[in-house]
Amino acid sequence: MKFTLLDNGADSLKGVYESLEKFDNNLSDSYHHIKDAVIFLNHGIEILFKVILSNHSAALMFTEIKSYQEARAKMKKSGKSNVFEVDSNLKTVSLIQAMDRIEYLCDIEIPELLRNSIYFINKTRNQIMHFGIELSKDDVKELVKKLKYCHEESILFLELHIDDLSDAIEDSRFEYTREDYESDMGEWQAELMMEEAKLGYDY
């Protein structure tokens, strides 16, 4: 199994779409899909913001740049391939910290409406993860509306700064099940039999 930062973030953004689609298509109060969408969206944006930081300098992803520098020096001396192998206590930046570093250290402007929607999603995620949340049906409708806006605008913004993101999102969460395989094989065999029948008829 191999997951790059890009793969990880793209997978979460695809998860947002799938969760919202399931919620929209479900006749029951399937609020767990909304919870999943909030967590996926917060995670996906955070990871992909770190991709942008890493494209400028991997050091920008870490809360303590000096600690990262020291770990990287140890990594090179020991022949390891990952700084976490030499210092498991390293911490990467939060979503909000990543957003600030992108704007003020990488000079990439994040549109104000997008920034505000990310703050809202992050606040909602923190409530879900660390305390609990209770919303009326009207509140849920508003949350879904904001989730869809933030999801769409985040992708538009991120695609400007991350090569191949759209392909990574499209390719993520692709599953080819045994049932799919058997169905495809059945169709292939039926087509083959038809072709053989046609050849036999021509003779």
Care to describe what's here?
It is a single chain. With 203 residues, the protein is mainly alpha-helical. The longest helix has 25 residues. The protein is globular, with a radius of gyration of 23 Å. The model has no long low-confidence stretch (mean pLDDT 87).
Distance separating the two termini:
52 Å
Oligomeric composition of the shown chains: single chain
DSSP E strands, number: 0
Report the radius of gyration as a whole number of Å.
Answer: 23 Å
User: How can the largest sheet be summarized?
Assistant: none
Helix segment tally: 8
Structure class? mainly alpha
Label the overall shape: globular
pLDDT averaged over residues: 87
Spell the H/E element sequence. HHHHHHHH
Approximately how much helix is present in the residues?
over 70%
What is the beta-strand fraction?
A: under 5%
Residue runs with pLDDT of under 50 for 5 or more positions: none
Give the helix/strand layout.
Layout: H1 5-25, H2 32-56, H3 65-78, H4 95-104, H5 112-130, H6 137-161, H7 165-171, H8 178-202
Helix pairs in contact: 1-2, 1-6, 1-7, 2-4, 2-5, 2-6, 5-6
